[in-house]
Amino acid sequence: MNLPTAPSPTLLLPGDAFPPTFEWGVATSSYQIEGAAKEGGRTPSIWDTFCRVPGAVHNGDHGDVACDHYHRMPQDVALIKSLGVDSYRFSVAWPRVQPHGRGPVNPEGLAFYDRLVDELLTNGIKPWVTLYHWDLPQELEDAGGWPNRDTAYRFADYAMMVFDKLQDRVETITTLNEPWCSAWLGYHVGVHAPGRKDFRASIDAVHHLLLGHGLATQRMRAAETTPHRYGITLNMGTADPAEDTDADRDAARRADGMGLRLYLDPLRKGYYPPDMVDELSQQGIALPIQDGDMEIIAEPFEVLGVNFYFGQDFSGVDEQGRTHGDDGQPVVRQVFPGTARTAMDWPITPERLTQLLVRLHRDYPGLPLVITENGAAFDDTADEQGYVADDDRTTYFAEHLAAVAEARNQGADIRGYFAWSLMDNFEWAYGYDKRFGIVHVDYDTQKRTPKQSAVWYRDTIAQYRD
Ligand code: FCB
Question: According to the model, what pLDDT value does residue 328 have?
Fold first, then answer.
């Protein structure tokens, strides 16, 4: 497929900003693009169920068809190739591969990913596999979901099914995408599947997600026939005090603790952050740690996937001027920096990406970083051909790539960058309303049309090839 020769904006980065070895990619996830929800032996995931809850997802949207990628995979791989990227990050749908979340593999489901990997390699694109991007088999949720310890073991079994099939052709395997979203949004806030609102359960989920990551990583490494690159992707922002006061500094510390350190400390240091453990215990909550768990969770891995969308400030005082909420807990109120916003109403804060990457390099040394997601939704207007002149999105990418280059200048070990997303897709609770793609999708016809940002991305990558 040839990309249109649209005028690219002149947002070119310096020619030496990225070395030729830098890994360029685009990313998607299974439930957001595949469709074919009832085909090939796939059973419902928690997202299929959640989408049916009235009011849970914008417009009652669901992933039954999505981008119909399951049926259009070869054309989509051709599209990826036309962008000139090195790698494609996709996720595997657990309920396709192991429909009941336990028990036998479903060969037909696994065969889809086998074909996808072959198609990518034939086209010179490296596959980057995410094992879990939120589509838990519903049967496992019925058995307790991530708050149930058994789910960690089920995850490791499932990981081995994928690994056994693909390890000969896939070098990079990341376990979980954004466990904070699974635990916090899924079990505490309830705006993501499975939509539970139980703080204690969400803390149990944190531990079992991390345990599942460690178990799977250990088992894959033990079974590998050649060395692989293992890792995990976390969503990370920055948490700064809104004002230079003790209360705001403390709120920022708490936000950082619950959002970032609660995951990275056990993964890299082998223990949960003591200040967070303290706070939880004041609420009568303990992480459900059993003997040996922390060693499993701290299993070394080779790459940290960083998903960055925006940074935030925090205040320890609520809008009524109170320092404690009705629940007696100290206030942690997010305050968005006063910058331009995207269609998600998220602030645009590229300088905070530099700040985050340099901080990760400083606080968690020796860990290569790859930006596994970064991008923006805007209210696109497509012309009659489906083309979108998305200056706003293009600028977002240019500014964030410049921020990555700056973090590299400051010494952070950043090895790659994946744009989110290859194409418009099912944006979780926002349904199809929010478009993150660099390729426009007409959901009536399933026609894909690269946006200006795709052309810009292709040209930018090409600049570092020469
Ligand atoms: C991330 C998710 C991804 C997508 C982007 C916008 O949190 O990993 O699936 O929805 O946000």
Answer: 87
Q: Are 375 and 423 within 8 A, CB to CB?
A: no
- Catalytic choice (373, 384, 399, 406): 373
Pocket probe for ligand 1: among 61, 89, 128, 178, the residue whose CB has the most ligand atoms within 8 Å is: 178
pTM for the full predicted model:
0.97
Instruction: Assess whether 178 carries a catalytic annotation.
Output: yes
d(CA 383, CA 387): 5
342 pocket-lining for ligand 1 (C-beta < 6 Å) = no
Report how far ligand 1's centroid is from the alpha carbon of 177 (Å).
9
Q: For a pLDDT cut of 90, what percent of the chain falls above it?
A: 95
**Model confidence over 282-330: pLDDT tens digits?**
999 999 999 999 999 999 999 999 999 999 999 999 999 999 998 888 9
Rounded distance from Cα 190 to ligand 1 centre (Å): 16
Task: Mention every residue, 6+ apart, whose C-beta is less than 8 A from residue 26.
Answer: 80, 83, 85, 88, 89, 418, 419, 420, 421, 422, 438
Measured CA to CA in angstroms, residue 88 lies from 19, 29, 417, 420 at distances of 19, 11, 11, 11
CB atoms within 10 A of CB 319: 8
Q: Tell me the helix, strand and coil percentages in the chain, rounded to 5.
A: 40, 15, 45
Pairing of strands 312-315, 239-241: parallel
What pLDDT digit, counting tens, does each position of 333-391 carry?
Answer: 999 998 999 999 999 999 999 999 999 999 999 999 999 999 999 999 999 999 999 99
Cα–Cα separations (whole angstroms), residue 37 to 96, 99, 230: 9, 12, 28
pLDDT at 10 over 70: no
CA 444, 447, 448, 450 dihedral sign is negative
What is the pLDDT at residue 79? Answer: 98
Domain map (residue ranges) of the chain = 23-463
The CA 411 to ligand 1 mean position distance, Å, reads 27
**Under 8 Å CB-to-CB from 9, ≥6 apart: which residues?**
391, 394, 395, 398, 452, 456
Minimum-distance ligand 1 atom for the alpha carbon of 427: 10
Residue 23 annotated to the active site: no
Return d(Cα 142, Cα 313) in angstroms, integer.
37
Burial letters 148-173, b for 16+ CB under 10 A, else e: bbebbebbbbbbbbbbebbbeebebb
Classify the phi-psi angles of 233: left when phi > 0, otherwise alpha if psi is within -120 to 50, otherwise beta: beta
Tell me which fold the domain 23-463 belongs to: TIM Barrel (3.20.20)
With H, G, I as helix, E, B as strand and everything else as coil, classify residue 239: strand
Q: What is the pLDDT of residues 16-56, one digit of tens each?
A: 899 999 999 999 999 999 999 999 999 999 999 999 999 99
